[in-house]
Amino acid sequence: ETSELDKNDINSSPQREKWCGHEFLYKFQGFWFTKTYLEATKKVLETFKPLPGDVILASFPKTGTTWLKAILHSIIHPSPRHENHPLTLNHPHQLIRSLETNLYIEKWTELGGTGSTKTPEFPAVKDPKKARILATHLPYQILGDILSFSDCKIVYVTRNPKDTLVSLWHFVQKSSSAEKDPWEVEAAVDQFCRGVVPFGPYYDHVLAYWEQSLNRPGNVHFLTYEELKENPKFHVRKLGEFLRCPFDQSEDGEEKIEEIVKMCSFESLSSQQVNKSNELPGVFPLPYSSFFRKGEVGDHKNYLEDKMIAKIDGITRKKFSRQWFYV
Ligand code: A3P
């Protein structure tokens, strides 16, 4: 059965390239998508309208999305530590749904798949005093018109490109299709450098949100995985201010921040039973446990050869041309 997308875009567009595990990536508006994500992206563009109070967590894959989901949820829906804490009962991806993955691919499959003309609904605002939090990997170049139209708040997290790539490489290796056709490190470096990875190019993705954070600092908050690791309490406080859920300066405020940092740490989250599950969530091909691997800064040194590092650094220097940006 051929979907609308096959007919209109894929066959007529030669811009596709083989990725790992017999999968192809397709170029759409300057970015690369798997076929399923491309279809979901188009649905998002057709139908998503953010509300003024929404909080959008935007990120390139493998840059700290899961961690930030846990932190944002804890800031906006504070809960004392007990056995029924939301992060004990749910994987962060269950607490904060992703526009293109959970809201579209999963719902849409339920509604009858790619031939379906029905559109999944976005979650309703349950408590008008609380923000609705949604996540996305879509680049600003594609989602920006929709996002800037409303007064929503965007939190963007990024990470060292070499660690991001190594994290992605490990993640992809875990899929069953990669077993038959592994994604070799050389190919991964080459494709990452050319931008041919899901939601890539990484550099264009980061730069567009970075620019927005400079132009509209009240609406777009930009932070890095590394600075969050380095000084989590400081950044959780800053996030609280940005999201209009400030922590007070008293001991009580400090304790609340410490509690969030502890609860959302790699050690704490990765040891929760719910996050160790090997069940496949919905249509996603990998189990929730695969979102927790090592959670460290600089792990690329264990996997990339010097010449690969030099190649990525060369591009990073050119694209980012800012001292603090990862070279
Ligand atoms: P590694 O593969 O380097 O370990 P994403 O959530 O965007 O998919 O990113 C996944 C990466 O974030 C993985 O990196 C994962 O281990 C790490 N990660 C997940 N939870 C984390 C946490 N609470 N603190 C720090 N890193 C975390």
Automatic annotation (TrEMBL):
It is an enzyme of class 2 (transferase). It holds the Pfam family Sulfotransfer_1. GO terms for molecular function: sulfotransferase activity. Its EC number is 2.8.2.-. Keywords: Transferase. Residues 53-321 form the Sulfotransferase domain. PANTHER family: SULFOTRANSFERASE SULT. This is Sulfotransferase. It comes from Sesamum alatum.
